[in-house]
Each structure stands twice: as C-alpha cells, then as structure tokens.
Amino acid sequence: MTTASRAAATSLLRFATAGSVDDGKSTLVGRLLHDSKSVLADQLAAVERVSAHRGQDAPDLALLTDGLRAEREQGITIDVAYRYFATARRRFVLADTPGHVQYTRNMVTGASTAELAVVLVDARHGVVEQTRRHAAVAALLRVPHVVLAVNKMDLVSYEESVFAAIAAEFTSYAAGLGIGRVVVIPVSALAGDNVVRPSARMPWYGGPTLLEHLESVPVGSDPDRDPARFPVQYVIRPYHGEHRDYRGYAGQLASGVLRVGDRVTVLPSGRTSTVAAIDVLGERREIAWAPQSVTVRLAEDLDVARGDLIAARDAAPRLTRDVGAYVCHLSERELRAGARVLLKHTTRTVRAVVEDLSYRIDTDTLQHRHGVTSLKVNDIGRVVLRTAEPLALDAYTANRRTGSFLLIDPADGTTLTAGMAGEAFATTGAGAGEGPRRKGTGSDAR
C-alpha cells in the first residue's frame, strides 16, 4: 500500500461554515446532521421538547449546534461549535463558526485547519460586507475549497435569476482574492432543499447537493509530495530499566513523510543526523506520514529540545529573523508598530517586535490602506516582524502548518493576532470563479 493510499483509507474532511447573522448557518448544519442520520434519538428528542416549549410546530434544527444558553436565547452563534459525523463515503469534522462581526476571529479559528469553507448568504440580501470578510479570511487562510450556499431560496420563490445574480457577484469578488474556483449551490436549510436530497423545486439546477459535494470533493494530498516537517513537542528520556539509553523526540508530523534511514536536519542548530527509529504508540514503524503523532529517534546524540524542527535535509526551510506576513488581528487590544510580542510558531515561542504595519486591507474593496497606525479587532493587514531568535519558517503558500504563527501578549498570554508568512493571498485575479451550474451546460460543479 502506498503512502497516498494509506492516507486515503481513512478519508476525512474538515470543513467550516461561515456567513452573516441570520443567514441560517445553524439551521443548515442541523439539517445536514438530521437528514444524513447523524443525530442521536435523545438529541433530537431534546430539540423537539425545546421547540415545542417555544410554541414551534416543527423541531428547530439550529438547536442541534447552538449549545450555549446565550446562543439559544438570542438565536445566534457565538462560539465555534465542532461536530463530528460520518456517512458511508467519508468522515467529517465540522466547525460551525459565528456570523457576527465581533466574532470574526472565531471564524479564523474554525477555518484555520479546514480544507473546505461553506459560506452562506441569504438569498433575500445577497452578498453583504460580512460575506466579503469571510471570503477574504478563507482566501487569507488558503482554504483549498470554497462553497457558496445561497440559502433561503424558498423565500425568493426559488427564482433562478436571484441565484444567478448572487453567484456572479460572489465569484467575481472571490476571483479578486485569488480564489480560483467556487462551487455555488442553491439551498433551503429550513425546507431541506439541496442539502442532503435534491430539490424538485429548482429544476433549473443540475449540480450536486451540499452533502454530495462534501462527500466527493478531493481532500488531502500525497504526503510524499511535501517535505518532511516535524516540530519537536517533547523529549522522552525514561532513565530506567531497559529504556535507560532511550532518547526520543515526540510530536506531530506537520507535513511530509519520515522513514527510517532518512537524512534530516535539526533546526535552528543546523546539525544533521539519520532517522534511526520511529515509534507509534509503543510500536516500531518504518514510516510515518502527516498528521501522525509519533516519536522519532536519531542515530546521533544531538542537543534537540522542544521547539526545534526536524526537517528533510535536502528540503529544509531557511532560517530567518525577519518575517513579512499577512495577519488577522483577533484581539480587542490594537496592534501597533513597535509593539513587543511573543511569536508562537509550531512548538517554538520567541520574542519579537512589530517593526512595521505596511497596510490594512479593505475587505469591501480589496484596496490596500497605507499609513495605518494600528490594526483593530478583525482587521486584515500586512506586517513586518523582527524576532529575537531565528525561526525555521516556511511560506504559508507552501505549508499551512509551518507557515503560520500566533502573536501573543507577553504580559498575560492573550492571543493577539494570527499570521501567515510570505504572500498568503494568491495572485489577484488568478482563475475565475465557477458560477451556477444549470442542467445541460456540461460544467463540472464537483
């Protein structure tokens, strides 16, 4: 079995939902879980009781994901709600993210590990500012696949012209962000149209349902294509019994493949060695691939500590103390030039200073606003940082795991900013979005 086939044997899609307030995200997620038979009987019974107590005739499926009391009282999503479910074709990890502007930072959290983002719009309102902001975040985080779900089609009489206009506007905006392809699906979460089962109310649409697309979209990549990156999280030295001379380096393989016998470089020291052994759950293995958690043993006794990076010798990242990056500011505290911060990259944390705020991106027009003195919460911009110690940092375009970092307030440990090193956005205008797929057009919506 090849490395790629091993990874594909347990097909898993991580995806996030996003959208403006009252676009129907929680209802869509609830419908997806309900109609795919992923809701336990007691969960559904609890939702039915709460809905009946409120005087509703049918179960409010949004309650399946809105777990906080404040969310249920206000009918909004505040926190990121993670849900795990599976169908016969694939397993899923779903991050239902908030729609309110002040919780955009939570959308960053939910989408940071996603391979697909479902952006909802209300068919009555079309593309709004928060829709554009969420598209910009998805582009910034380089989420590989983007789906536009045009919801509440039942409230616009299932009109094709309404759907087509929204699809054209969003795909044009997405192309400006460098999102090369968008799959657009008309749905009604409340009625269940095109969520799990095809809708007879929209005969003009010939594309997949949302679940069909989620089940068939390509996920992951062949780990053999990516250079090995292994951030050391913990050094294991038992000092007793038969393992007295054991020295292992534990962590999660961020990308690529490690094999016994591979030549590797330990950064930032630059020392080289050979992989002598790989242990997985106490068993010896000849090979490991991302994102497995393993313990690696080296042939030489090197000074390796938490925060070091074990990388393929022939494809090791360049060490740098000067970091240019796109960032999304997450804190109510403003980020200013000259600010002293901690920079957390994989398992390594170093001191850094914000040398320059190059510009802020206007998510409405995509224009660069130069001359800014600070970044406020939810702002997206470009910064230049100088670190006290060298970092083995990849470009975010090459590796989402080892090209990303967090800025932390050294005074109290508050997370301030999420950063993506290098040119996180794709080239503006690269590719064109895929508009609505209609029967007889022959376009491939998958």
Describe the structure using short key phrases:
446 residues; alpha+beta; eight-stranded antiparallel β-sheet; six-stranded mixed β-sheet; 8 helices; 33% strand; globular; disordered C terminus
Describe the structure in your own words.
Strands 7, 8, 9, 11, 12, 13, 15 and 16 form an eight-stranded antiparallel β-sheet that branches. Strands 2-3-1-4-5-6 form a six-stranded mixed β-sheet, sandwiched between helices. The protein has eight helices and 25 strands. It is α+β, with helices and mostly antiparallel strands. Helix 5 packs parallel to helix 6 (129-140).
**Helical/strand content category:** alpha+beta
Terminal Cα span: 27 Å
C-alpha-based Rg, rounded:
23 Å
Strand segment count? 25
Brief rundown of the structure:
It contains eight helices and 25 strands. It has 446 residues and is of the alpha+beta class.
